[in-house]
Design brief:
single chain, alpha+beta, two-stranded antiparallel sheet
Length: 197
């Protein structure tokens, strides 16, 4: 990916261990590192929703595992909203990439049943927060809320470029202003992400 915003490189990557990756020889140690740039490539864009999903995964996994390395494929992911509600499907896709959890399209496991990735991602879950992450090994769970409105207004920036009276300057400056907004989300991560034990 060329000519992406420089701030992408300053965002802390998410490191997980995937035993399936090691078992199948995709790499020797099973350690996978996901950068924000990796997630942008997967999603095809960078916005407040994608940034928020990344931050929810990053901070949620830290709260869930502490100093341990998160175990990809061993995490249940529950989202309160439906896939088409406020682009929650995008959030689910980002979380699936990082945690390995899928609804019914993922890897079904080897013949012993180990490494199954299905039935670990749920939408419209009966939970009180945007997201709940649960460790399958210990049952420990954390809930996460994302509140970008505390620091940015993505719709206002978008509308400034597509409104009927938008100027050429409004349109030309939009990509930069939009990514400046995403950068602001990351710079205020501790304000927009709320962790609930």
């Amino acid at each position: 990916m060329r000519d992406y915003p420089a701030f992408f490189d300053a965002i802390e990557p998410i490191v997980v261990y995937d035993d399936l990756c090691k078992f199948l020889g995709a790499n020797r140690d099973g350690i996978l590192e996901f950068s924000y740039k990796d997630i942008v490539k997967t999603a095809g864009h960078s916005c407040a929703t994608v940034a928020g999903a990344y931050l929810m995964a990053q901070k949620g996994l830290k709260a869930l595992y502490g100093d341990e390395t998160p175990q990809r494929g061993e995490i249940k992911v529950e989202l309160r909203k439906a896939p088409r509600e406020e682009n929650t499907g995008v959030v689910g896709s980002v979380l699936s990439t990082i945690t390995g959890a899928t609804h019914d399209l993922g890897f079904g496991g080897i013949p012993t049943g180990k490494y199954n990735r299905r039935d670990l991602l749920f939408f419209e879950a009966p939970i009180d927060h945007d997201l709940r992450l649960t460790r399958l090994d210990t049952g420990k769970a954390v809930s996460v809320d994302y509140r970008p409105g505390k620091v940015v207004n993505p719709m206002a920036i978008l509308m400034s470029a597509i409104k009927p009276d938008a100027t050429e300057e409004d349109k030309e400056s939009f990509p930069r202003r939009f990514q400046d907004m995403v950068q602001t989300v990351f710079e205020h991560a501790d304000e927009v992400i709320e962790i609930h034990a």
